[in-house]
């Protein structure tokens, strides 16, 4: 909207704050997505192949937690940098059509549309489970799946079984809606506190700066982000070291250490 000149007022991109996406998206979505899949299906993750589409902050969390349960994690990405990070984090990385043939459980966390589409459904193995934890129920091409199914039935709450004409069955969780919110309880309060602190303190900042904030997208001020991290550590009873005056001087100078 800002690029198109359609944004008529200032907004703050809370999701870009470190104390938001590094924690809410990674640890919150990571834990609650696995929680939702497990509650809905009661499947054992250990030894199964878990495909994660999108290796952003949510995808990293889902991959990390699936790995921690003993799953064999495969990442599908479109961004070369993120794909490279996934490779070096120790995951297999491949195109989704190749991953489709291997997936026991496939989770989308991209924010994109039709990430699991007709080609993936063609290649998917019998009994595969598909779920979404991205922002909306468009990441899986559900209209296509419904169209090609010869029968659909609910086998457990929030688990739909699609029988395909070729004899395979595919299971869709929570109608492709956010599985962590539909089948579990979303993120624990102990990670949402930082997201809501970003919203509250950013709202206060906007009120204070109302006279000078131009229409457009503004970051959460760095001091608010750092203060939330400080408060969170304090609330957890964690203390850390502080720089000595000598260290501060050394880190901010170029003279010592370079000659
Ligand atoms: N379930 C929840 O509670 C929850 C919480 C926070 C965010 N979200 C949502 O999760 C989604 C991801 O959030 P994020 O913070 O990880 O975003 P992000 O931008 O950090 O990561 C998204 C990743 O998906 C990749 N991607 C895009 N299209 C793709 C495709 N077709 N195939 C494979 N990869 C593709 C991008 O390259 C990117 O690396 C967003 O839609 C966000 O709104 C959900």
Descriptors for this entry?
42% helix, 18% strand, two-stranded parallel ribbon, alpha/beta, eight-stranded mixed beta sheet, 259 residues, binds nicotinamide-adenine-dinucleotide
Briefly, what is this?
It is built from ten helices and ten strands. With 259 residues, the protein is an alpha/beta fold.
If you had to describe this structure to a student in words, what would you say it looks like?
- This protein has an eight-stranded mixed beta sheet. The chain has a two-stranded parallel sheet with strand order 1-10.
- The model has no long low-confidence stretch (mean pLDDT 97).
- β8 and β9 form a beta hairpin.
- It has 259 residues and is an alpha/beta fold.
- α1 packs across α2 and α8 packs antiparallel against α9.
- The chain binds nicotinamide-adenine-dinucleotide.
- The site of nicotinamide-adenine-dinucleotide has 25 residues, from α1 and α2.
The H-and-E topology, N to C, reads as EHEHEHEHEHEHEEEHHEHH
Per DSSP E runs of 2 or more residues, the count of β-strands stands at: 10
Oligomer: single chain
Q: What structural category arises from helix and sheet content?
A: alpha/beta
Outline the low-pLDDT stretches: none
The molecules bound to the chains, other than polymers, are: nicotinamide-adenine-dinucleotide
In terms of DSSP E residues, the strand content is: 15-25%
Kindly state the percentage of residues in helix.
40-55%
**Average of pLDDT:** 97
Number of helices: 10
Distance between the termini: 50 Å
In order across it, which strands form the biggest sheet?
4-3-2-5-6-9-8-7
Describe the global form.
globular
- Radius of gyration using CA atoms only: 22 Å
The profile of the biggest β sheet is: 8 strands, mixed
């Amino acid at each position: 909207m800002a690029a198109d000149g359609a944004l008529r007022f200032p907004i703050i991109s809370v999701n870009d704050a470190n104390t938001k996406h590094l924690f809410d998206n990674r640890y919150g979505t990571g834990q609650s997505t696995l929680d939702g899949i497990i509650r809905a299906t009661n499947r054992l993750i250990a030894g199964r192949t878990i495909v994660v589409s999108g290796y952003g902050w949510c995808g990293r969390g889902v991959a990390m937690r699936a790995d921690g349960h003993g799953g064999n994690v495969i990442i599908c990405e479109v961004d070369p940098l993120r794909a490279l990070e996934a490779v070096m984090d120790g995951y297999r990385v491949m195109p989704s059509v190749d991953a489709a043939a291997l997936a026991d459980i496939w989770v989308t966390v991209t924010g994109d549309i039709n990430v699991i589409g007709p080609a993936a459904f063609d290649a998917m193995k019998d009994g595969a489970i598909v779920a979404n934890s991205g922002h909306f129920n468009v990441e899986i091409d559900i209209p296509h799946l419904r169209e090609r199914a010869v029968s659909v039935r609910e086998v457990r709450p929030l688990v739909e079984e699609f029988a395909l004409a070729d004899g395979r069955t595919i299971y869709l969780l929570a109608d492709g809606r956010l599985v962590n919110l539909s089948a579990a309880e979303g993120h624990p309060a102990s990670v949402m506190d930082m997201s809501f602190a970003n919203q509250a303190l950013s709202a206060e900042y906007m009120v204070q700066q109302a006279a000078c904030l131009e229409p457009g997208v503004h970051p959460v001020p760095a001091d608010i982000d750092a203060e939330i991290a400080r408060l969170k550590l304090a609330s957890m009873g964690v203390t850390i070291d502080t720089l000595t005056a000598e260290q501060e001087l050394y880190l901010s100078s170029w003279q010592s250490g370079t000659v």
